[in-house]
Design goal:
By secondary structure, the protein is mainly α. The protein has helices spanning 16-27, 33-52, 63-74, 83-101, 110-114, 130-142, 146-158, 162-167, 170-180, 205-218, 231-249, 254-270, 275-278, 285-298, 308-311; strands spanning 182-184, 200-202. It folds into 2 domains: 8-114; 126-311, hpI Integrase, Chain A. The termini are far apart.
Length: 315
């Protein structure tokens, strides 16, 4: 096998999944059929996740996306996935990316990333520190990156994913916030659930301020994605922009901002700090369970057990 030309997927083809398989075949010289098949199957699962993030070109994959996918795997460990399988998944991604790129610039050590990692949050998300969070947002704005700053604010104050924040109809959301004190998240939801299941998120004063800034930045388009970019081009830019200002302040990823939102909401619902903040569950177990059920809906999940990754253990 050889490259087909063009720039997309480092010249291995237009479809990211197919390009990865072609690169593997080239590296393994037409032999090792079982090895190629195993890596290809795991690569396909990664490609499915990438498509949910709006990424269809391997050139857009950076350490930010790899870290987010690692988190995605970590949340499934001890549930539907073993640590061994998760490590194999990351190993296959390493092999395919090296085959596509011709280097090991993005190589990850599965043991370092997934070793004995728990999916239960045991420390407060850094985004709870509003002074530090605001510092990162101000740096983005000062650098002319108002749109990524608005996405970060919506993630923090409404608990949105970056895709949901980017596709949010700001005109409708502003109307809902003013009329009902909450907004219904429809576009960009995981698995398309927003089209069939209402997901109303309450609007705090901080959230109202975030919506105002986002609407101002978006202008007449009423969405934060710039006219000259597709969603697939936009989402990686958002993550990289946030990573540049967040890393020095140890604020984590945009997903960690959702955890900060969840901890804030847990406090408002139960009048007790989240277990991740104080190290132990202080709320009555029935109140805690009710809060988790409500938060799972607001965050766009259909299971309450995933809330341990946001607010800590229920024990």
């Amino acid at each position: 096998m050889r490259k087909v030309g063009g720039r997309r997927n480092f010249g291995w083809g237009k479809q990211i999944e197919w390009a990865g398989k072609q690169a593997l075949r080239a590296v393994f010289g037409g032999g090792h059929y079982g090895t190629v098949a195993s890596h290809s199957a795991r690569w396909r699962r990664f490609c499915e996740w990438l498509r949910e993030q709006g990424i269809r070109d391997a050139r857009q994959i950076s350490r930010v996306e790899l870290a987010q996918f690692t988190d995605h795997l970590a949340h499934q460990i001890s549930g539907s996935m073993s640590i061994a399988y998760a490590k194999n998944q990351l190993t296959s991604i390493n092999v395919v990316l090296e085959s596509l790129r011709g280097d090991r610039a993005l190589w990850m050590k599965p043991g370092d990333r997934l070793g004995k990692r728990s999916t239960i949050r045991v420390s407060p998300p850094a985004g709870l520190n509003r002074a530090r969070f605001r510092c990162a947002v101000d740096k983005l704005i000062a650098g002319g990156k108002e749109r990524p700053a608005a996405v970060a604010l919506l993630c923090r104050e409404l608990g949105l994913r970056r895709r949901e924040a980017s596709l949010l109809d700001l005109r409708l959301a502003s109307h809902q916030a003013a009329s009902f004190g909450r907004v219904n998240i429809v576009a960009g939801t995981k698995g398309g659930r927003g089209r069939s299941v209402d997901r109303w998120v309450p609007v705090s004063n901080h959230a109202k301020a975030a919506l105002r800034l986002a609407a101002e930045v978006a202008g007449n388009r009423w969405k934060l994605i710039p006219d000259h970019l597709s969603l697939a081009q936009w989402l990686p830019k958002v993550s990289r922009s946030w990573g540049e200002v967040a890393a020095p302040l140890q604020l984590g990823t945009l997903r960690d901002l959702r955890a900060a939102y969840a901890c804030d909401r847990y406090l408002r619902i139960t009048n007790e700090h989240a277990p991740a903040v104080v190290g132990v569950r202080s709320a009555d177990k029935f109140v805690d369970r009710a809060a988790r059920s409500l938060l799972s809906q607001e965050l766009g999940h259909n299971r309450i057990d995933v809330l341990t990754a946001y607010i800590g253990s229920a024990k």
